[in-house]
Amino acid sequence: MLLSCILLMWNPKGAFSGEKIYILFLVSGICLAYFDFLTAPTITLTIPLALICLREKQSWKTLLKWTLYWLAGYAGMWAGKWVISLILQSEAFFRSLTDHFALWTAEALPNSTKITRIGALNANFEVLFQDLVVNLLLISYVILVAAGFIRNMKKLDLKYIDTTISLFFPALIPVLWILIMASHSVEHTFFTYRTLAPCVFCMLCGLDIGNITGSGQKDIKGT
Question: What is the pLDDT of residue 16?
């Protein structure tokens, strides 16, 4: 994820601009499937998407297209590993694969305890916001942004509302992931809660856009 963000911001010789950005998401998805263990996979997608939204206006259609490239790389790499394993281990592996997928996405834990998908989302948010210091910093930041928003209300440029709206796209992806991977997300909240970090990042960026543009500072593309 960090490398993707560096390449996006640095963008050597325009290698990752315009339509070429899809290459970055495709390769990111492939690398993720090779190295990650379902800890917080969507971070490699959501943070770069958020940075692109902040850099320039993007339509949801374009964001969806890049998301599908990331998904193709991620799912394609997994599928490649599954095919190799299936050839070597035959039907036993396929049964194990389907059993694990059913377990990860079920509305019950391995010990048969019933859960709900909304409950899985709530459990991860509780872990994300369990640190008092982090909560105080977030609340303080929101208060400062709100104060700046009120102060600069007459100077706000509504054309930047599109940027705020586009940030909802990457913010929703982690939520959908946890809703789908309900059992896995409850069983492993001690690390899956990190998946929701981009939601907070997008929210804070969306709140602060009004301050950046309303206070007479430089255009958001240059921030």
Answer: 59
171 touches 203 (CB < 8 A): yes
Q: What is the mean pLDDT of residues 153-157?
A: 63
Task: State which residues form the domain around 144.
Answer: 2-222
Indicate the length of the chain as a whole number.
223
Number of domains in the chain: 1
Given a contact cutoff of 8 angstroms between Cβ atoms, the answer to whether 107 and 116 are in contact is yes
Q: What is the pLDDT of residues 76-126, one digit of tens each?
A: 988 887 788 777 776 676 777 778 788 889 998 888 889 999 999 999 999
Q: How confident is the model at residue 208 (pLDDT cuts 50, 70, 90)?
A: confident
